[in-house]
Amino acid sequence: MLIRERIEKAAESLTSGERKLAAAILSDYPFSGLTPIQELARHSEVSAPSISRFVTKIGLDGYQDFQRELMNELRQGMRSPLELHAPGRPVEGGYLKDFIAKSTSQMAMAADAITEDQFTQICALLSDPKRRIYVLGGRISDTIARHLTFHLRMIRKDVIHLSDNPEVWPEHLLQMRAGDILYLVDFRRYQRTLERLARLAQGQNARIVLMTDKWISPIARHAHEVLPVPIDSGTLWDTYSAALAVTEAIVTRIAEQDWEQARARMQAWEALRPTSQDDPK
Fold it and tell me: Domain 113-272 belongs to what topology?
């Protein structure tokens, strides 16, 4: 169980001081918990003994054990396909049926990991016509980001998919207004360039929305909203099935909540699309 999950599980039994400590840990998770205990005590305004009692309360053997668990989470977030491959993985029934069953399970887990209130809030941010939307993903996860960009462009204006070339970013950063949205998709192995982009966009007062995995990209320290989706398929490749399902739920919700506006833009979009009759003979 992740440290974050341990804290959430114990939430109802925490004292006011422990809730303050939990908030400090989760505000810059997992990095806040990797500092010396005295530094965390100063940051959270609780005593070092209170921290020791807290980590015991969430089922760990002390602050060193707490930090070992956090370090292991970080290592899990950096694992490559070569490390993920597990020869002899048991398959239940046919391979295709087994794989799809696991992907279905991941999608169900995503529905539990993201609250309906958070989902509604993110849809509201992405549908707000006063905000420009900037989107980018990582080396592989940009496929999810592009899926979001394509559908958002069809139902609203001011949606920009950023180039993966950092040399192009300054132009867009200079155009960002306070309240604009930078939507980033970053799964393990996390990309440092995306974290830098998030930090720079935060400096422009943009709001960062992050889709990531349960190990949490470092971008989370800059993010206003974090969408954690399960990606671990038990094979050498992480699965993006849940990420795609959440993305499609977002764009569908946005289109349906203001269907008249979405329909008008989609009709205009379709009228301008090239058709087979436009092809040269």
Answer: Rossmann fold (3.40.50)
